[in-house]
Structure formats: C-alpha cells, structure tokens
TrEMBL record:
This is Pimeloyl-ACP methyl ester carboxylesterase. It comes from the Bacteria. InterPro entries: AB_hydrolase_1, AB_hydrolase_fold, AB_hydrolase_sf, Epox_hydrolase-like. Residues 23-253 form the AB hydrolase-1 domain.
Amino acid sequence: MTTATVNGITIGYDDEGAGDDVLVLVHGHPFDRTMWRPQVEHFSRAGWRVIAADLRGYGETTVVSGTTPLSTFASDLAALLDHLGVERFVLGGLSMGGQIVLECARTFPERLRGLVLADTFAQAETEEGRRARNDMAERLLREGMAGYAIEVRWKMVAPHNPVVAEFVSQLMHNAPPEGAAAALRGRAERPDYTETLATITVPTLVIVGSDDEYTPVGDAEYMHERVPGSTLVVVEGAAHMPNLERPEVFNRAVEDLLAQT
C-alpha cells in the first residue's frame, strides 16, 4: 500500500507509469480508487504517469465523519499532487469525482492540462435533493452500506453486465458508512458550477453512459454546450460506470482527449 500524509490525513493511492505527462483520476461515491483499474493499467502502459487516490473517507484513506464538502476533496487532491511533485496534469472524475474536478477547475485552473467529466452534472442540488442526500447519510450511518448497495447496483451498471455489477456492488459494500455519509452531506451543499463551465479553456471530454439514470445524457449535453470546444461522447449500452462497463470505448475517448493536451 502506498500512502502519503497530507492535510492531516493519510491518503492511499496508486502512482503508476512515469514521465511528465500525468493523468489524475478521481473516483465517485461510494467507491474507491480501484474503480479506475482498467484506466490505470491502460494509460500507464501507454506512456502516461497515472495517479488514482482514495478520497477522504473511502478505501485506504482516513475516514473523517461529519461533512466533507467538495472543496475539501479538491484541497486534499492538490496537497497530494504537491507531495508527489506534480504541477500540471490532466484531471478526470466520474459522478462525485466529476464534481470534484469542477471544483478543481474553479479553484486552481492553472494546473490543469485537460479535463474528463464522466457521468456527472454541474448544477447545484435542489431542495428535494438536499433532503434526500441528508436522509441517505443518516440511513447509511444507521444501517450500513449493504441495503443501499443492493438497491442501486442495477442503476450503477446496466443489467447485461453482471460481472461488473458484482465488482461495483462489492466496492459499495466495502465503503465506510461514516465517509460516505460525510460526502453526501457535503454534496448536498455543493455550489452551482454552471459559471465555471464557461471559464474552462483546456481540452475537455464530457462522457456519459447512454442508460445512465443518475446523470442522464441531458446532463452531459448541458455541460458540453457550456464548455467551449468540448467533446461529447455517449457510451452506448452503459449506465453510470462506462469506464468499467465498456472500458475499450471509454479509453478510446480519453486517448483522443489526451492527444489534444
């Protein structure tokens, strides 16, 4: 296990490949960095240095209860990259990870060479959504992750992909309830990143599964229309985890982006 102590926590991370071209990948909720294994392996073999870390509260990183706003996740990421001597990089994230990417684009755009916004959305939470996230946070603390993982597995992954669904389900079962609850509370209060979209000047890939119920194609189109010069890719037959469901399509789209950076 590779770890670093920054921002008062210990972060578990993978750092594979070598060179000055760096790709950083940010996982979603309630997963950990192993959701990026197909991409870490593929792009590190292709000549990129690939870094994927467990977010605060997940995987092998310190669990902090309470509320974890997106700004804290972004600060942790910046501190880890400082520790690793990485100044500029291509940054990609899925779902909550994509919202952390947008927070990074808002707070330190000068460090970014390119962006991947996968199965995510930019708008602030609705009042109904805030209640639902806070209620779910309380439920996870009360009941643990098992019931939630069973309920949502076929929204995370399209039904024709049972092997991936089992892997994703295990990731959700393994997530610490305290960390997941803290992230949910933080996302309930997230800002609206719509104005940030228009300020993005680096090559940007917006990618989404065609069957994603959580962040449907319309959410991807919303971002694509507002990020100047961005590329939109819809991964047919995938739900919320196209990087795992159809990694060959996902990786090809990211390759096209990396060629522009």
